[in-house]
Design a protein that fits this description.
By secondary structure, the chain is of the alpha/beta class. The protein is 42% helix and 16% strand. Helix 5 packs parallel to helix 8 and helix 8 packs parallel to helix 9.
Length: 261
C-alpha cells in the first residue's frame, strides 16, 4: 500500500481507476507499470469488452469489475468511483487503458494535489507530429465552452488523466444520477469540471506529453458526435447561469489563473 502525506501531514490513500473497453493490446503492461507505484487500490472496470480484456485483468492482482452490458465510459467511471469510495481512499486517479497516459506522471499529480487540494488535470502538450488535427481542434473547441461555463480557463477539459478528491465526488449525487440516465460517456468529464466549479472546487493542471502509441485500439472518442453532445450540455448549463457573462469575461482576458502551475 502506498501512502503519501498531504499538507496537514495526514496519510493520503490514493486509488487508480481505469475504465476499459477492448484494451487487450495495452492493458496488461499498463497495469503492471502502475502496480510498481504501489497505489492503495487499483480498480479496472471492464465495460463488456468483446476482446480478451476481461481475461487479462482477471489474472492480475487488482480489483476487476465487469459490466454485463456496454454502458459507456461515464457509467464505468462511476462504478469505479463507488468502489474506491467504499474502500475509503482519499483521492482517485483516472487514466485511459490505451497507454496514452504515462503512469510515471502519477506522482506529479499527487504532488500537485498536496499543494492545491483541487481536481488535478494532466494537460496534454500539443504535438503536431503525433496528435491528429481534428482531435486537437475538437479539444480546443470544447475547452472554450467548458471554461466559459466553469468560469475560469481550463487547459485540457478532455483529458481523462485526472485526480479527483473523494470529498468532491461524494457531493455529486445529482450529477451522478443524470450521468447514469443519459449514458453520454464523454460528456461527464466536461460536466464534472463545471459542476465542481459551481460548488467552488476548481481544477489545476500538470503538463504532460501527448502519447499516441502505435500498438493501441482506435480511439473511442468521436469528435463530431461527442463535441456536439458536450456543446449541448454546456449550452444548457449556461442558460441556467443566464449565460454566465462573468465567466466569459474571465476566460477572454485570462484574469482567472487558478488553473496555472
Amino acid at each position: 500500500m502506498s501512502l503519501i502525506k498531504n499538507n496537514d501531514h495526514k496519510t493520503l490513500k490514493w486509488a487508480v481507476l481505469i475504465p476499459a473497453y477492448n484494451e487487450e493490446l495495452t492493458i496488461k503492461p499498463l497495469i503492471e507499470e502502475i502496480l510498481t507505484l504501489q497505489p492503495s487500490q487499483l480498480i479496472v472496470v471492464n465495460d463488456c469488452s468483446s476482446d480478451h480484456t476481461a481475461e487479462l485483468i482477471d489474472k492480475l492482482p487488482i480489483i476487476a469489475l465487469h459490466n454485463s452490458n456496454n454502458l459507456g465510459k461515464a457509467t464505468s467511471l462511476w462504478r469505479g468511483f463507488d468502489k474506491a469510495i467504499e474502500l475509503n481512499v482519499d483521492v482517485i486517479i483516472t487514466l485511459d487503458g490505451d497507454s496514452q497516459h504515462d503512469p510515471k506522471d502519477i506522482p506529479r499529480l499527487l504532488e500537485k494535489y498536496n499543494k492545491h487540494e483541487q481536481i488535478i488535470i494532466a494537460a496534454r502538450k500539443r504535438n503536431p507530429e503525433t496528435q491528429p488535427f481534428a482531435r486537437y481542434f475538437a479539444n480546443k473547441f470544447a475547452n472554450f465552452w467548458v471554461s466559459w461555463a466553469a468560469g475560469y480557463r481550463i487547459s485540457d477539459s478532455q483529458s481523462g488523466f485526472r485526480l479527483y478528491p473523494v470529498s468532491l465526488l461524494k457531493k455529486l449525487s445529482a450529477l451522478k444520477q443524470s450521468t447514469l440516465q443519459s449514458r453520454q460517456g464523454f460528456v461527464f468529464e466536461s460536466e464534472v469540471l463545471i459542476e465542481a466549479a459551481w460548488q467552488n472546487v476548481s481544477s489545476t493542471s500538470v503538463e504532460i506529453d501527448a502519447i499516441y502509441p502505435e500498438q493501441r485500439r482506435a480511439s473511442h472518442f468521436e469528435p463530431f458526435k461527442d463535441i456536439s453532445n458536450i456543446t449541448k450540455m454546456v449550452a444548457s448549463r449556461l442558460l441556467k447561469k443566464k449565460m454566465n457573462l462573468s465567466g466569459l469575461y474571465a476566460i477572454i482576458i485570462n484574469k482567472n489563473n487558478r488553473h496555472k502551475e
